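## Example pair
The file below holds two records. Each record gives the amino-acid sequence first, followed by its structure token line.
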Amino acid sequence: MKSIRLITVCILTVFVQFSVSAQSLPVGTIALEDYFRRSQLSGTADTNISFTIRPLFPDHIHNNHLKDIFYPDSNTNKYKLLSLWQTDGKKNQVALLPFTVQTQYNSHHPYGWNDGAMIPAKGLQTLVSAGIYARYGLLTIQLKPEFVAAENSEFDTFNKNSSANAFVRYYSIYNTIDLPARFGTGTYTRVYWGQSSIRLNYKAVSFGLSTENLWWGPGIQSSLLMSNTAPGFPHFTLNTLHPLQTPIGSFEGQVIAGNLGNSGYPPLEAAGYIYRGANLYLTKPNNWRYLNGIILTWQPRWIPGLFLGFDHSSVYYVKDLDVFNDYLPLFSSDISDTRSIRLTSLFMRWLWTQEHAEIYFEWGQYDNTQGVLQESLAPNNQRAYTFGIRKLLPFGSSKGENILLGIEATQLQENSITNIMTGNEWYVNRYIRQGYTNQGQELGAGIGPGGNLQSVNISWVKGLQKLGLQFERYAHNNDLYYLTYTNTRDYRRHWVDLSIAAVGEWSCKNLIFNAKVQAIKSINYQWYLPADPSNPVVTLAVNGVDAFNLQVQAGVTYLF
């Protein structure tokens, strides 16, 4: 433990002389964010940036072939902040941030994640964001609020004809995590601070208060600890603006302390399900939750392109914070504290620039109460992982024109029925009954507890232009399936979504457009199969209840 403290202190006290700027590129920024990551594969962007700690600070993504990293495509007008006021050298500046409108439509039931302030909803919803950026000396202020409005239409949730045992098992999980099937019974509107921050920046380090979305880890579709599935939450942050160079390699890091919000909605729209005279729904306490987290990424100087990292987060009810170690639980010796939620992961990202490829992996453990040595002897206990690989293939005679291939798989499903029975599954907690969520959505992987996701992407890319196909297989909460249907001997009750999507991103002058059309076949929707009246235990001869959902996304960003 002393060595961990020493390493952390050393890293946070190393400074490198660079110009100071803290305008961030928000997590999930259409076209630009993935453009820079793709540029690393081709070797045209700085390969010292790990892309495992986001948001990025683009002034520090150096590109040897372009004078301005915000304008990578010669067909696009310069993406520059519209300065309302500035002094010589832009040391002091007030400017407009890009204006974004993003829409999403689901025809049958909610689908999708990594969409920030948007909610899981049927029907049409829209997110609008704009803002202003100011810099004065060491101080920067970024105000970029978000407004979301969702039609939030009614849809079929957990099937009312399911068995009593199925309802008991459903509530045993969703009473211990804040993931409502529907956010109320009518139109949903919210205004968030969004991608806003106020910071003091000195050389390579920034400290401030932020409500920005965070992304930790190397994944593209999923992150085990921090993603942009939920809205951003208010947090203090101490982070690097760019890699810190040391004799043993470069480091990036972030420490946060924040407050998580509750949705206030029950798991299902109805008041609950009465079983043996008792209501299965248990109201969640409306307690404030405190989150503390840390991430550290190291690029060894001896292995170019390799990034090794560690991240950890803990959640407490504010009322339970008694001593200093509760505020910085990573340094606490009491790892068996049952008042908290604890998540830890190790990750790796390896860039192979000569092969124009990358491979990445994240392995995590949830609510580790056994210690590092004991858990290392049982690495499958309460584990989850994400694995992915991407490669650029030259295509056509035009310079910079490529085919991008990507594969990613994430597994959150618990592999021990004992852990499932005792409620020890990812993001679920029997003491902190909102689980690892913010505003009713997952802080980590958007596929949720017990979920598994496999995706394959193939795209034509050139600059900011992208046209491609995406294939996905998404298994919803297999932990609930095994908890409920183990004794039925029916192996078809898994709720599995199979989908294909056409994806496009395109720039034209000051505009960046994006669109996605996805056809989704839900097999055994809501894990439901009707029982065979002649043999209610074995239902192999009974067809399941399937559903078809069409999701359409479209958006535009105006660059001042």
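Second record, same layout:
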Amino acid sequence: MNRRTLRAVRAEAGFSFVELLVTIIIAALAFAALVPLFVQAQSRNSADNARNIALQIAQDKVEKIRQLDYDQITQGNLESTVTAGGQFGTDWDFTRNGVTRHFTIQYTIVPVPANAPAGREQYKKVEVSVAWTAPPKPVKAAVLQTLVYRQFAGPEITSVNVGPPGIFDINLPDVPTIIGSPVVIDAYLSPEDITSMDATNPDPDLRGWIKFTITSYTGVTVASQDVSTVYNNEPGHYQYAWDNSAAQDGVYRIEITAVSATKTQGSTATLSYPVALRLPPAPTGLVAVPGDRLVSLSWDPSGIGDFHHYELWRGTASGNATHYLDLANPNFTDQPLNNGDTFFYAVCVVDTEGNHSALSGEVSATPAVPSDTVPPSVPAGLAATKLPNTGTISLSWNASTDYGSPATGVLGYIVERSASGAGGWVQLNGSYPNVTYLDSSAGWLSTWYYHVAAVDNAMNVSAFSAPVGPVTTDPQPKYSLTVNNTNGFGIYVWVQNVGTGQWYSTSGVAQTTKPAGVNIKKNKSQAWANLPSGLYNVYASTSTSGSPPLTSQSGSGDLSAGNNSITF
């Protein structure tokens, strides 16, 4: 056999034993160096997984917060384990592959602006911070924020009923006119908003309430009440009775707003109605001033919206006055009369439906030749100016002086107007006590001339001032009313002028009969253009017949000062 040397054998093996030992030691050192890196990578991966879970929990809470009613977003509710069926709270355990990891949830609610009274902020900034209990480390909380706006976030009024039916004039079916009293208003809340009212709370101050407000067309509040007790133990049903027995005739707006127990205000439902009570209030302020073979009469103007005329009653003994004549203005000079005879007077109001008020208080006067026979000075400085965007002309003049001997003093002024300034003068007021006068009956796009005379307490009348004019009022403004349909379904809409009862098309064409409803698709809007300024009722329904009606959720049909919108 061939003999090989040990050196040759070692050469064929490739490396020596020492070299092998060195290689093993180097490999062991390298492995030992890689183990911490591997462990660190595993730890970092575990922390990333925990943070991803924390982020998912935070995102879930944010989405659930946005599903709550605005007034339910409170610190107590979010930290409670019973809110929204247990979907909130401050602790969360996550289990996977038999390993449970504990997460802690913190909520921060900041109203904006921060100094706003409770329920009056613009929105809430809600922060959700989720962290886990180590290990793994490092613990880096997942933080998310959301903004929740309060607009219309309060309780929603879904329907309103005004009655009873007997208070409405059955002769005017197209213009629901209230002719009786009291007016009972029933408001109904959305079922999902009932709990936000906390109506069963024994402390009334801690409950939500429905605010009922009645305003005249001029914006004066005539009645208001907050109702926190449900009607007849019916959840979500609130009732208010308006005693309108003393209300002057005219147009009134009913506004109903729901406010939750946490003082979050919801949207406002608005309805408008003409009020024309069967018996107008009796005139007040009747004064009779005697003169030479005459008696000058004046009284306070009637404020009813459906005024037609006055009836003047006269008699020669107390209590036996009879209907004497009809008058359009609240003043009259009764002449010629016999000096020394005493006459008794009373006045009543008649509305457009022929309803008579009670008679005013009785007054008397005895004509006689006055010791003062000198008339006052002619009023000077008469000026007439139109008021922009109204059908009104404003008059002013300098006060007159009574030169009688002895002087009886200036009683007032006689204001007249004419369409030409050359004749056809019509008295607007007699014995008017002031030196300014608003002719609110001038009308839109109308031209007038005016002159004024003074009258003293002896019934001496000055000459009339030189006429001023022509003064022309502005044309009646035309505005747009936009109806927004925020429902998830189409609706039909009708627009009616409260004062005239006329119905309008979307292009502004008026008609006396109710037209077909205008269809507005879901989440769309429709404008009614070229509407004369004034107050409008807007009716909406899911049916072409108009029943059942939908109650306005916001806005108003008031076009007295400019464009407006109403939302359903």
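Notes on the second record: The chain has five domains: 19-149, 157-275, 287-365, 383-472, 478-567. The longest helix spans residues 17-67.
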